[in-house]
Amino acid sequence: MRLVRLLSRGPASPGPALPRAVWWLIAARAVNRLGAFSLSFLTVLIATRYGASAATAGLVSAAFGLATIPSRLVGGRLADRLGRRRTIVVGLTGCAVAQLGIAAADSLAVTAGFVVLLGLVFELYEPPSQALIADAVGASERVRAYSLLNAALAAAGMGAGLVAAGLGRWDLRWLFVADAVTCLVCALVVRRVLPADRPRVGRAAERAGDIAPWRDATLLALLASGTLFALVYLQIMITLPLALAHRGLRPADAGLLFTASALTIVVGQPLLRLKPLAALSTPAAFATGYVLLAAGLAGYGATHSLGAHVVPTVVWSLGDLVLMGRVYALVADLAPAGGTGRYLAVFGTSWGIAGVVAPVVGTQLLQHLGVTVLWLTMSAVCLALAVTQPFLAHAVAARTSPAPAAATRTPAAENPAR
Question: Which domain of life is it from (predicted)?
Answer without folding.
Answer: Bacteria
